[in-house]
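Q: What would this chain look like folded?
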Amino acid sequence: MTVAIGLVFEAAVILGIPIFLEENPSLSKSIRKTTDKLTLLPKRIRNKTKKVKDDF
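A: My prediction, written as structure tokens:
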């Protein structure tokens, strides 16, 4: 046995990645959290959104 799994858990905590959840967060809440974090980035770093062509 190694300590690799412990390192994974520590890295997840540092990065704010939840590993064990009692309840699943809704998708819209997750998207809103991610959007809030992305707004803190400078414009030159943000990904540009591409318009999706969905007219088959």
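The chain has a mean pLDDT of 78.
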